[in-house]
């Protein structure tokens, strides 16, 4: 229920409807916009909202949905209901174009089944009857004209007409040439008069040419004569034209008769196109105002996040301005928000935004809010906005307000939304304030919801001490004396009457007299509110700065975590490399010892040769020891007196990590450590040369290659189908690589078969010194067809 009747107009809903009306392609869609109503059923509202949201998605994703051409099929269907009537060529062509659009849309959704379920509900169980198109195609050409071969009789008539026209043309040409040679003809050529071909003849020669005068020029000097000889031919041609017209009518009547049984289906197609045009217009408007679908809840409450008044948004968009978003919530505990603050500070816009967005949602329209907003459903929406004084009804401004208050109090329920602008005005404030307070108390007792704007101090005090009511104020910049248009819930706001008057230049003596007349208590209250506003502004700025600082700290912590993870990974990789190098040294040492013993045996313990071999062995062992004990030389720092600049390469002290300087902020450096960014103190790094930086990059690339080899290694080798010798060769290479990369165990798949390959592999593994033990796979997962090899 909406009250009063001009509620939609006062909240701006009629203007929204006009904007949607402009997006409609057809009169049918425009009629639906005009009939659009505010609903109160959750399922119905939810369906309409989701349909609009889905069509908005189609438009934003530039899906190939073409609905640019369709006409009023209903009027055509109503016309063919009557027996004996027929559709003319243009009407049939309109029906054909509209049906093509229908079938194109149906095909679009068929190809995207279940993608747009709510739009698909518009044409659920709607059949595609292409016989209608085929019947029309047999009669009309693509331009909407009757085909010459629409019937055999029409084809014959058209052929006879062509032949008769040719005969008339030949005879006329002959007579015309003769008249020209006799100088009877006026300036000009053959022309048509009353549908007849005539020769323009000079008036003085009109008796020299036998025929019928059809017309004469304005001056009377030229007459247009149809020669007697072609009169009969022209009559025959005229009869053929009548025959053609009668045949075309007969064809159209026959076609209309064939289409008459499809009338109910045509009406269904009409309804589908009308709804589609309506939903499309709503979606286009939603794109214009950057609207989205809020969370719809089946309760009398609302929570708007970053809400914008759609009409104000469009107006500001043209002027390249931005709208300050509104954040407000109304629920069971916070039922009525009492908004106060300076004049022209945005109180009325705040209240109208809540009311208009509520009307839009309950009419199935998307609204310009953040998608996390929650909007409920109200059974009643009451609005007291503007001055409704009436001379005819003998109503003053205050009487009009009281009339509305009486209705609000009588019909208010917990599912009512009450919107009142400048509550209590229109009469003596001494009496208007208490009256407004009484009305507010009754509305609160009835648990009605609402947004009310006021300047009355008694209402602010009442809202601050009454559960269910909440003060709110529009913030004001005390320094620049300008409103911020930001709603702050929890505290009342000052009207800033004196401050605004002083800012616009009102004389000082007037301001002093006004302050003196206002009274000490009122001045004290207003000053207190001004101080509160100033403190709120300072707190708001402080919170904003604190939030920025917290974001910076979070970013720094995240970068430090990345750097720590990067260093930990490098540490693990370096340890693995050291282990691999130690294993290689041990392997080489063992091979050297074995080769030395073998040579001693071959030389049969010759003392000189044995001595020489021992010296060679000792020399190699000493070289390995020296290489192992040799530590990498630390990178020599550059001239410490040279200041670090942007672009220099630096190295962390007590670490081999290097990076390039991106920024310098006092004692802090912003470094690029590979893909990471980190902030370090200057005293934690020293400059290095570009050559040393390249060496460090090469070491890092080697580390990356080892890590890549480990990630690409598969700890499972399939040997099934191989010959014994080839299998052992593959096993040897695979075990060496596994040990080199530091894997604790691997899996060899050799299959069961006769057990020959398994025995060969097991015997080989017994001789491999790095193998600790071997085990069969679990019986459920392959049993003795798979061998697990564990290394020392």
From TrEMBL:
Q: What Gene3D superfamilies does the annotation carry?
A: 3.30.1370.110, P-loop containing nucleotide triphosphate hydrolases
What HAMAP family does the record point to?
MutS2 (MF_00092)
Signal peptide annotation: none
The entry sums up its family as follows:
Belongs to the DNA mismatch repair MutS family. MutS2 subfamily.
Q: Which of this chain's residues are annotated to bind ATP?
A: 341-348
Q: Which PROSITE patterns match?
A: SMR
Q: What does this protein do?
A: Endonuclease that is involved in the suppression of homologous recombination and thus may have a key role in the control of bacterial genetic diversity.
Name of protein: Endonuclease MutS2
Q: Give the record's GO biological process terms.
A: mismatch repair; negative regulation of DNA recombination; rescue of stalled ribosome
Return the InterPro entries for the record: DNA_mismatch_repair_MutS_C, DNA_mismatch_repair_MutS_core, DNA_mismatch_repair_MutS_sf, MutS, MutS2, P-loop_NTPase, Smr_dom, Smr_dom_sf
């Amino acid at each position: 229920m909406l009250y009063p009747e001009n509620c939609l107009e006062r909240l701006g809903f009629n203007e929204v409807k006009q904007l949607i009306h402009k997006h409609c392609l057809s009169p049918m869609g425009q009629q639906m916009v005009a009939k659009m109503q505010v609903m109160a059923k959750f399922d119905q509202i939810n369906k309409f909202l989701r349909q609009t949201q889905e069509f908005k998605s189609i438009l934003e994703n530039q899906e190939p949905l073409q609905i640019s051409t369709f006409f009023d099929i209903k009027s055509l269907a109503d016309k063919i209901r009557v027996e004996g009537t027929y559709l003319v060529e243009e009407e049939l062509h309109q029906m054909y174009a509209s049906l093509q659009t229908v079938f194109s849309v149906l095909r679009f959704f068929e190809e995207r089944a279940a993608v747009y379920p709510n739009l698909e509900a518009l044409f659920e169980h709607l059949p595609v009857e292409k016989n209608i198109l085929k019947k029309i195609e047999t009669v009309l050409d693509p331009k909407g004209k009757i085909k010459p071969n629409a019937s055999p009789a029409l084809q014959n008539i058209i052929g006879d007409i062509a032949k008769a026209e040719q005969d008339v043309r030949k005879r006329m040409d002959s007579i015309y040439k003769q008249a020209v040679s006799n100088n009877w003809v006026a300036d000009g050529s053959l022309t048509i008069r009353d549908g007849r071909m005539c020769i323009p003849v000079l008036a003085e020669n009109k008796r020299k040419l036998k025929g019928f005068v059809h017309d004469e020029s304005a001056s009377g000097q030229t007459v247009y004569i149809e020669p007697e000889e072609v009169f009969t031919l022209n009559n025959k041609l005229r009869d053929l034209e009548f025959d053609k017209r009668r045949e075309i009518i007969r064809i159209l009547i026959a076609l209309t008769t064939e289409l008459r049984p499809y009338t109910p289906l045509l009406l269904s197609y009409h309804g589908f196109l009308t709804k589609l045009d309506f939903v499309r217009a709503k979606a286009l408007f939603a794109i214009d105002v950057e609207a989205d679908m809020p969370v719809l809840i089946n309760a009398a409450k609302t929570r708007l996040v970053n809400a914008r008044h759609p009409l104000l948004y469009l107006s500001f968009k043209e002027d390249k301005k931005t709208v300050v978003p509104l954040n407000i919530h109304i629920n069971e505990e916070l039922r009525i928000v009492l908004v106060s603050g300076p004049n022209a500070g945005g109180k009325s816009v705040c209240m109208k935004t809540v009311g208009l967005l509520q009307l839009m949602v309950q009419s199935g329209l998307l609204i310009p809010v953040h998608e996390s907003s929650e909007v409920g459903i109200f059974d009643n929406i009451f609005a007291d906005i503007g001055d409704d004084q009436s001379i005819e009804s003998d109503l003053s401004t205050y009487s009009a307000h009281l009339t509305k208050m009486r209705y609000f109090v009588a019909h208010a329920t917990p599912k009512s939304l009450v919107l009142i602008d400048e509550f209590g005005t229109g009469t003596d404030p001494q009496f208007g304030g208490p009256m407004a307070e009484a009305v507010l108390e009754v509305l609160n007792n009835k648990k009605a919801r609402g947004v009310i704007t006021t300047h009355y101090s008694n209402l602010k005090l009442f809202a601050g001490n009454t559960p269910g009511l909440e003060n709110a104020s529009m913030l004001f910049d005390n320094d620049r004396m300008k409103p911020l248009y930001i709603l702050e819930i929890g505290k009342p706001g000052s009207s800033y009457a004196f401050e605004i008057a002083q800012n616009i230049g009102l004389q000082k003596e007037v301001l002093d007299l006004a302050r003196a007349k206002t009274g000490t208590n009122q001045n004290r209250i207003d000053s207190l509110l001004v101080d509160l506003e100033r403190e709120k502004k300072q707190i708001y700025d402080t919170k904003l700065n604190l939030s920025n600082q917290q974001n910076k700290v979070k970013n720094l912590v995240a970068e430090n975590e990345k750097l720590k993870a990067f260093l930990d990974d490098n540490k693990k990789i370096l340890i693995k490399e050291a282990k691999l190098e130690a294993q290689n040294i041990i392997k080489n040492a063992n091979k050297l010892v074995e080769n030395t013993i073998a040579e001693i045996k071959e030389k049969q313990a010759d003392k000189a040769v044995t001595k020489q071999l021992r010296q060679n062995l000792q020399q190699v062992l000493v070289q390995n020891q020296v290489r192992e004990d040799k530590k990498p030389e630390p990178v020599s720092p550059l001239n410490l007196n040279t200041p670090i600049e942007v672009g220099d390469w630096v190295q962390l002290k007590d670490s081999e990590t290097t990076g390039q300087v991106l920024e310098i902020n006092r004692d802090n450096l912003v470094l690029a450590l590979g893909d990471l960014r980190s902030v370090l103190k200057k005293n934690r790094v020293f400059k290095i040369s570009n050559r040393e930086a390249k060496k460090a990059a090469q070491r890092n690339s080697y580390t990356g290659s080892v890590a890549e080899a480990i990630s690409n290694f598969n700890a499972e080798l399939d040997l099934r189908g191989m010959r014994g010798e080839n299998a052992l060769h593959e096993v040897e290479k695979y075990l060496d690589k596994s040990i080199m990369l530091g894997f604790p165990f691997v899996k060899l798949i050799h299959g069961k078969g006769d057990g020959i390959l398994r025995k060969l592999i097991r015997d080989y593994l017994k001789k491999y010194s790095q193998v600790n033990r071997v085990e069969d796979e679990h019986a459920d997962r392959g049993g003795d067809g798979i061998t697990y090899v564990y290394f020392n």
